[in-house]
Structures are given as structure tokens and as C-alpha cells.
Amino acid sequence: MEESATRPPATFWPSEEVGHNHEAKLEVRIFNTLKIFDTPKPERLIKRILEIATNPGDLILDSFAGSGTTGAVAQKMGRRWIMIELGEHCHTHIIPRLQKVINNEDPGGITKTINWQGGGGFRYYKLAPSLLEKDKYDNWVISPKYNPAMLVEAMCKLMGFTYSPSQTHYWNQGYSSESDHIYITTNTLTHDQLQAINEELRDDQTLLICCKAFRANPNDFPKLTIKKIPQSVLHQCEWGHDDYSLNVANLKTLEKPPKPIQTQQLSLLEENEPKS
Q: Disulfide: which of 20, 55, 65, 214 matches 189 by Cβ 3.0-4.6 Å?
């Protein structure tokens, strides 16, 4: 047994081969962060792991990104990567570090060993507020943090529609095909309102309506599918499963390789450009 409970466990990989903690701290010092990360990993260690477990082009996932060593090494080794970080390390360590790696301004780590010359890119996403929350009666309601435009865009993504508000029809806020559209509103819709919308649709058109509530028999409107927003959102979640694979969006494609992505149930992913 180790004499000290706080001493890191021994490893069968010698430091001469994979580096050590002091070396790792020197590697991240060049990024001029406010505080040196407490427990960085040596790039040589991550390189060895990726050599054993992956091939060029494989996708590497690091769900606790820390100082961004995994992404930096994966980028240099020709692997794709996704890193997740809920702390401020994303802004103080990861983004500055990856920008330097891409711009060939990172002389440390495995750069010289593999003759890294820079290149590539990444996307960066942050979590939006939760779309639903419970009220004082323990009922699921729409979060007041969402304004109408945010709600419409979030619901389009959650329901698999492309957000594209019409300039001529208020009820046409998106589409999944040329004839299948979606309308999202926080109003309570009456029979007369639903009837008026149904009559505006062509015979070959259908409309999914997601609303706060409705006072009508949905079967009276053959062109409409009517759902309450909280229930329609909750039904997208795979509660009780190990794999919570809620598909929130096919996010627009930028002319850059992937950036770190963070995900959360019932949230809209907002895209952000890294700060320079």
C-alpha cells in the first residue's frame, strides 16, 4: 500500500516514455493563462494512448476536457475530437491552447516529435438554458428565459424541422418537407382559430402545431397535428436509459472542422465563435 493516501498511484509506464506532471505544466504555461492548470496530462502520455487505441481519422471524446491536452494531441495526430468542459477552463485554457495549435504557435508537447505544422479548425458551442422547468405545482412549463423567437427555433430543432419563418403565413415557421410545416405558439388555441388555419392549408399540406394548450377536438382538423409543448418535448427524451441520445438539431455547417461541443437534455445548443 502507498504510505500517503494523497500520493498518485504508481504506473507501469515510465516517465521517460510518457512524461510527467511537471512536464505537462510546462507545456500549458506558454498559453499565458491566469492560473496554471492543477492536473494537466503530458502530451506524450496522451499520444501513447491514442497510438494504442485509435487510428488517424478516428473520433476522440474527452468528457472532462480540463486544459485541453486531449484535443491538442488529437489535432496534431490527425484525429477528430470532441471535448466537453462545464468550467471556465474552456475559455481560460482550451480555446487559447487549440487556437495556438492550429496556428502553429505551440512549440511544446509532441509538436517537434511528429513535425506538427499547424492547420485545421474547430467549432465551439455553449449550453442554452433548459427549455422546460417545473412550476410551483410540479408541472412542466416553458422556461421564461426563452423569448418567442428562441422557443420557435428550439422547438423546430427538437421536432426535426428546419427553422424558416414565412413572411406571408404566420403559422408557417419551419418545414420538414415541401408540404409538411410547423407552428409554435405559447397561446391557447380555440376551435375557430384551428379551423381557420386548417382552411388556409392546401390539400397536399400538413401542419404540426405545438402550443401551450388547445380547446378543440384534434380529430376535427385532418391537416393538423396538435401537441402541447411540454409533453411533445418530454417525449423526445429517453428517460430511464443509459444512453440519453436526444437529437436536438442538425446544426448548420460552417467551413471549419469540428469545435468542442457540450450537450444537455432539453437545451438548445447555441453556436459561438471563439474569442481571439
A: 214
The pLDDT > 70 percentage for the chain reads 71
pLDDT attached to residue 27: 57
Please calculate the CA angle 242-94-43 and round it to the nearest 5 degrees.
Answer: 90
Q: How many CA atoms within 13 Å lie on the side-chain side of 187?
A: 10
Task: Using alpha carbons, select from 104, 57, 108, 105 the residue that is nearest to residue 78.
Answer: 57
* 139, three cell numbers: 408541472
Q: Where are the chain's structural domains?
A: 15-122, 129-252
The answer, as to whether pTM is greater than 0.70, is no
- Give the integer Cα–Cα distance in Å for 116 and 213: 58
Calpha distance 246→258 (Å, rounded): 19
- 131 within 8 A of 142, measured Cβ to Cβ: yes
- The identity of residue 21, as a single letter, is N
For domain 129-252, the CATH architecture is 3-Layer(aba) Sandwich (3.40)
